[in-house]
DNA sequence: GAGCACTGC
């Protein structure tokens, strides 16, 4: 989750006038006993029969810790919150010394310095502050290159760790710190610049802090700390596999386990455990930061790397830098290492293990340090349903009103649901019930929240509730990590989410409602305790909670791996099957992805990356879309500009606005008629992008006239510009041969077919479509302009299984074209 | 007749 700015946790009360139910943070800092239960007892009686059982054992799921005082809370994952410990035989936890991250030299002056001075006490109050010295010690000295750091929400790790390391003697290069999301990278960079009394990024040549995200890079010649997205770091590795400009890479939010973070960790392990020739002998330090305490998987992951590297260098002197060869399942989700017996036997227990390597060739042992930092989270009381429910929307409705009648305002309710449909369904029900509330009851405003909701409607959740009013936010998973809603004291968790899963056999994604993991449930619960003690109402039984998986299955085990494998191949990993995966995908998935890359011509028969593959790897696109682009640039196709427009539209969500009412929908259909093309969605996207681009006077008005999303079109234009620039650099030619519109359309569709040969289907006599590769029934998605139309064959750029198999992004093609593409798929 | 959430020189 993004580390929010911690202004509210500086030890001052959140509000100047304490609300009746709020417990000011200072009280916690003074270690006063929580009054949570008293408060509940004093609360007005619920008007309905109590709906919930308190949990049978632990009532408080989150410990609260501030100022280093230990409360008797139990940490979210059930382990004890202990004081910080760094495990390293060479690292004795030393007393906190003066912070060396403070700039040396002349005394500061000016507004930037003033800001830095103002922020200093806030930084010093962060839980991580007291451990600055420990963190520095853990990486000081040779062969102390890896630090695993658990820092819970509010510990301050994302902002402080890079500043702690800045003045270390070994830190002569830049510090990279990766984030899963662009907004987090930018806002953290801004915060750290303020804390250091520096300008941000490219605003002045002397600025010390910068960031790098897609479409937005802001660094200066003096940049020392650089926040960047995981994808950007991978992109930088294409140019510099050894990351020579960096002394340390801090990998943040690892617990989210994006595909990119798994790839980053694999590459970093290779660098850190390999020889240092590629880096001119200089070591790279790696800090891996996670919000969940389960870092044993990471410990094993790096241990295995060191062990293999020492085996390599002692046996044949080769480096493990580009090729990890461990067989063990170093799985994050707790699958134990299968090569346990190879681990150093002398060292037990693992907690005190500091040496990942038993030196086999006389080299000093490398050490992996661990550090645990307590968070700043208020306790959250958790309630379960006594009996399972079939209808979580109805159960949520009951819970909302039970809370509303029982608990005083302020205190907003955040409800986690599965999707737009359940959000809108529950919104309707709540609004109906609100009509029946008496005038003496506080008001309710319902606020839906999901990604497809227009931005200005999403913004409404950030406005505080008016007096005597309670906000009820009905949200998808977007509020679990991406959006932090202020004011929430009550969470209602349906225990489910829509999860995307790639089916190797069918080659299509499924998007189904599945139970969430315990860690996701804890994450949702934590959303109630960010500003004050809170409550979490789980719409399932405690027994059901205990049967949930501990962690969410990492994305790399759930997705199409072709993009990930191409990333590896392009960065010099020849043997991708033996890449050091933190969680190793099944062999079948890897083979399937290799086969797909071969069919795209991105790999040679020998499995080496081809020129086409190298080109595709440099594009910010999936391999399939990249292949379409390369095809469109061929002289005989000559439709690169058009393909760029289409791909740009395919790369954003919701070019066409979703309309709520039937009436609006009909209006939109009529308005868009000029954009629709009978050839299908891709030509329709082309007409839309071209129409928008040709509008020179008022593009916003153009989008409104055509019921097109202005925001989406702005993104399209960014991507279009980026792709045009890249095509120039990669010498992909823009054709200047005149073509008839029919010839152009044919070229475009052929280029699409080259990338999406596997995504083709033919019309059956019964009117359904069946894929040519697997003879699977697939239906044209209702959002397609070809919905309800019958054409002899289709090509589609996306497919997903929800209630049935749907093709999205559909174009009509001739069956003999499809047959031709399937027959010969050479480069 | 339907759209979990992120992300990329």
Automatic annotation (TrEMBL):
Going by the entry's taxonomy, the superkingdom of the source organism is recorded as Eukaryota
Q: Upper lineage ranks?
A: Eukaryota, Fungi, Dikarya, Ascomycota, Pezizomycotina
UniProt-listed InterPro entries: DEAD-box_helicase_OB_fold, DEAD/DEAH_box_helicase_dom, DNA/RNA_helicase_DEAH_CS, HA2_WH, Helicase-assoc_dom, Helicase_ATP-bd, Helicase_C-like, P-loop_NTPase
Tell me which residues make up the Helicase C-terminal domain. Answer: 399-574
Q: Which GO molecular function annotations are given, in alphabetical order?
A: hydrolase activity; RNA helicase activity
Biased region (Polar residues) positions are: 80-94, 309-325
Q: Decide whether keyword Hydrolase is in the record.
A: yes
For this protein, the record's PANTHER family field holds:
ATP-DEPENDENT RNA HELICASE, ATP-DEPENDENT RNA HELICASE DHX33
All copies of the Helicase ATP-binding domain together span 138-311
Indicate the secretion signal residues.
Answer: none
Which reactions appear under catalytic activity for this entry?
Answer: ATP + H2O = ADP + phosphate + H(+)
* Annotated PROSITE patterns: DEAH_ATP_HELICASE, HELICASE_ATP_BIND_1, HELICASE_CTER
* This protein's encoding gene: prh1
Keyword set, alphabetical order: ATP-binding, Helicase, Hydrolase, Nucleotide-binding
What is the designated name of this protein?
Answer: RNA helicase
Composition-biased stretches, type Low complexity, lie in 60-79
Pfam families with a match to the protein in the record: DEAD (PF00270), HA2_C (PF21010), Helicase_C (PF00271), OB_NTP_bind (PF07717), WHD_HA2 (PF04408)
- Annotated region (Disordered) at 1-113, 309-370
């Amino acid at each position: 989750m993004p580390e929010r700015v911690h202004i509210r946790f500086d030890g001052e009360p959140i509000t100047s006038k304490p609300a009746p139910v709020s417990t000011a943070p200072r009280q916690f800092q003074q270690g006063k006993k929580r009054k949570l239960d008293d408060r509940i007892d004093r609360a007005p009686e619920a008007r309905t029969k109590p709906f919930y059982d308190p949990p049978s054992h632990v009532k408080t799921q989150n410990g609260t810790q501030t100022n280093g005082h230990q409360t008797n809370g139990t940490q979210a994952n059930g382990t004890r919150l202990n004081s910080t410990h760094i495990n390293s035989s060479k690292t004795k936890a030393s007393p906190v010394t003066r912070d060396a991250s403070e700039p040396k030299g002349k005394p500061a002056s000016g507004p930037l310095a003033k800001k830095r001075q103002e922020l200093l006490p806030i930084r010093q109050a962060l839980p991580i502050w007291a451990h600055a010295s420990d963190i520095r010690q853990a990486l000081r000295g040779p062969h102390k290159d890896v630090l695993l750091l658990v820092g819970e929400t509010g510990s301050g790790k994302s902002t402080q760790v890079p500043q702690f390391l800045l003045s270390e003697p070994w830190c002569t290069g830049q510090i990279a710190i990766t984030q899963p999301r662009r907004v987090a990278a930018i806002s953290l960079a801004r915060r750290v610049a303020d804390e250091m009394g520096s300008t941000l990024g490219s605003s002045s040549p002397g600025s010390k802090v910068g960031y790098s995200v897609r479409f937005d890079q802001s660094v200066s010649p003096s940049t020392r700390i650089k926040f960047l997205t995981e994808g950007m770091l991978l992109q930088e590795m294409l140019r510099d596999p050894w990351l020579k400009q960096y002394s340390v890479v801090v990998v943040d939010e690892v617990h989210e386990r994006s595909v990119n973070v798994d790839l980053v960790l694999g590459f970093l392990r290779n660098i850190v455990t390999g020889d240092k020739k590629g880096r001119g002998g200089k070591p790279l330090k790696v800090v891996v930061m996670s919000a969940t305490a389960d870092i044993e998987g990471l410990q094993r992951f790096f241990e295995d790397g060191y062990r293999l590297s020492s085996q390599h260098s002692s046996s044949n002197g080769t480096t493990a830098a580009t090729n990890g060869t461990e067989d063990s399942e170093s799985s994050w989700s707790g699958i134990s290492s299968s090569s346990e017996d190879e681990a150093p036997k002398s060292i037990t227990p693992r907690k005190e293990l500091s040496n990942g390597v038993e030196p086999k060739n006389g080299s000093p042992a490398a050490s992996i340090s661990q550090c645990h930092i307590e968070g700043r989270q208020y306790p959250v009381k958790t309630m379960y349903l006594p009996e399972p429910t079939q209808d979580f929307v109805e159960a949520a409705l009951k819970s909302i009103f039970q809370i509303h009648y029982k608990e005083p305002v302020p205190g907003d309710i955040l409800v986690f649901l599965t999707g737009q449909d359940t959000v809108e369904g529950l919104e309707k029900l709540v609004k109906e019930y609100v009509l029946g509330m008496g005038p003496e009851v506080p008001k309710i405003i319902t606020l839906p929240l999901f990604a497809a909701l227009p931005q200005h409607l999403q913004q409404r959740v950030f406005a505080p509730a008016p007096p005597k009013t309670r906000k009820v936010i009905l949200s998808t998973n977007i509020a679990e990590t991406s959006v932090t809603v202020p004011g929430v004291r009550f969470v209602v968790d349906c225990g489910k989410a829509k999860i995307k899963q790639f089916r190797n056999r069918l080659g299509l994604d499924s998007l189904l409602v599945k139970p969430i993991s315990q860690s996701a449930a804890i994450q949702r619960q934590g959303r109630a305790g960010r500003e004050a003690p809170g409550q979490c109402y789980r719409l399932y039984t405690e027994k059901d909670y205990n049967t949930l998986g501990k962690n969410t299955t990492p994305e790399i085990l759930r997705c199409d791996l072709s993009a990930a494998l191409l990333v590896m191949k392009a960065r010099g990993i020849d043997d991708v099957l033996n890449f050091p995966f933190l969680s190793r995908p099944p062999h079948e998935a890897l083979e399937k992805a290799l086969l797909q890359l071969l069919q795209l011509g991105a790999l040679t028969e020998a499995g080496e990356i081809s020129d086409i593959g190298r080109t595709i790897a440099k594009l910010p696109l999936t391999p399939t879309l990249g292949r379409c682009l390369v095809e469109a640039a061929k002289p005989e196709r000559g439709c690169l500009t058009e393909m760029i427009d289409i791909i740009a539209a395919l790369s954003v969500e919701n070019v066409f606005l979703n309309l709520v009412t039937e009436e609006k929908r009909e209006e939109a259909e009529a308005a868009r008629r000029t954009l629709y093309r009978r050839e299908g969605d891709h030509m329709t996207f082309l007409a839309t992008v071209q129409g928008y681009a040709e509008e020179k006077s008022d593009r916003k008005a153009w989008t409104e006239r055509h019921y097109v999303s202005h925001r989406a079109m702005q993104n399209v234009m960014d991507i279009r510009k980026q792709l045009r620039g890249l095509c120039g650099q990669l010498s992909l030619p823009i054709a200047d041969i005149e073509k008839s519109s029919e010839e152009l359309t044919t070229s475009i569709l052929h280029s699409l077919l080259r990338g999406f040969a596997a995504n083709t289907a033919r019309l059956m006599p019964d009117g359904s479509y069946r894929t040519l590769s697997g003879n699977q029934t697939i239906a044209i998605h209702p959002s397609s302009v070809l919905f309800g139309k019958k054409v002899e064959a289709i090509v589609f750029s996306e497919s997903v299984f929800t209630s049935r198999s749907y093709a999205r992004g559909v174009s009509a093609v001739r069956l003999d074209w499809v047959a031709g593409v399937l027959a010969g798929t050479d480069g």
